[in-house]
Amino acid sequence: MTKTIAFLRAINVGGHTVKDRLRRLFEDMGFSGVETFIASGNVIFDANSRSPQALEKRIERHLREALGYEVATFIRSISELAGVARYRPFKNSELAAHGHTLYIAFLSDRPTTPARKKLMTFVTDVDDLHLHGREVYWLRRKRMTESAFSGALLERTLGMPATLRNSTTVGKIVAKYAR
């Protein structure tokens, strides 16, 4: 069994609230050790699957059937997530500066070369972006309202769904579950 995390995109928005049911929905799929973390869109569980893509599709299908709407799912093992948390595309001084926030966008696949190039056109003094594997690191240097970039723009630019987490949340998950 591999300790696995599912990052769920927009599970509790648009009038939908499944926070209390989410653990049971994962247990219904046969997963063990199911926990939600911080926000209900972060589900940690034990799985035997060797294919993250197959696992994503299985969870998406089950959630769509149970909830009646699409829930994009992004799977990472805890060891993969530890690598994501350790990766530092920006200087520590940038990360520690007042008002700066680092977000990590999880993708189901690596973006194409044209999509990556297009994404880099959104780098500004406020927003800095870095692609690494199936993650996009977004350093926002001012308030969200002062940024022209967003998760929706990220998805449109890359032509694929994504879900964003604050790097602090990612670090807390790794601290709790990585052995």
Describe what you observe in this structure.
With about 180 residues, the chain is an alpha+beta fold. It has 2 domains: about 1-80, Alpha-Beta Plaits, CATH 3.30.70.1280; about 85-175, Alpha-Beta Plaits. Helices cover about 35% and strands about 30% of the residues. It has helices at about 20-30, 50-65, 80-85, 90-95, 115-120, 150-160, 165-175, and strands at about 1-10, 30-35, 40-45, 75, 100-105, 125-130, 135-140, 160-165. The mean pLDDT is about 90.
List the helices and strands and how they pair.
Elements lengths: L1 E7 L13 H7 L3 E6 L1 E9 L4 H16 L5 E5 H9 L5 H5 L4 E7 L5 H8 L6 E6 L2 E6 L10 H8 L3 E5 H11 L2
Antiparallel strand pairs: 1-3, 1-4, 2-3, 5-7, 5-8, 6-7
The percent range for helix content is 25-40%
Strands, count: 8
- Give me the CATH architecture of the largest domain, please: 2-Layer Sandwich
By helix and strand content, what is the structural category? alpha+beta
* Average of the residue pLDDT scores: 92
Notable features of this structure?
4-stranded antiparallel sheet, single chain, 7 helices, alpha+beta, 179 residues, Alpha-Beta Plaits, 2 domains
